[in-house]
Amino acid sequence: MFDLDVQSGKPVYEQLMDKLKELMINEVLQEHNQLPSIRILAQELTINPNTIQKAYKQLESDGFIYTLPGKGNFVAPPKSFKNSSKEEEIRIELSKVLAEALYIGIDKHEIYRMIKEISPLAKGGDS
């Protein structure tokens, strides 16, 4: 499915979360698709099942996936990704990045152009 860098300073469960989010945003994993079971994914990636469980729990907490007891984990519909605490965290980070971009001289029209360029790539989000 994908590779994780166990030598990286970033925790493996965060790498796994980032990779799964990327697959969801790029619609490789579409809403209501079942994710691999914890056991199978742990075997494929040769990592501890608890690491997968931690990533899945965090993704569920953030609204990216949902669990059906006895059935497994599934990709949540894009609109349910909206999570007020996650949204606020993104707003804060985006504000910092935009302020830095403006400070170093990137024109606001260039920023608008970049947003328009990125918007089609995030099909799951609002345009």
TrEMBL record:
Keyword 4Fe-4S appears in the UniProt entry: no
Domain HTH gntR-type, chain residue ranges per copy: 10-78
A Pfam family of this chain: GntR
CDD domains with a match to the protein in the record: WHTH_GntR
InterPro entries: Tscrpt_reg_HTH_GntR (IPR000524), WH-like_DNA-bd_sf (IPR036388), WH_DNA-bd_sf (IPR036390)
Keyword DNA-binding (UniProt): yes
SMART domains with a match to the protein in the record: HTH_GNTR
MF terms (GO), sorted A to Z: DNA binding; DNA-binding transcription factor activity
Keywords: DNA-binding, Transcription, Transcription regulation
Name recorded for this polypeptide: GntR family transcriptional regulator
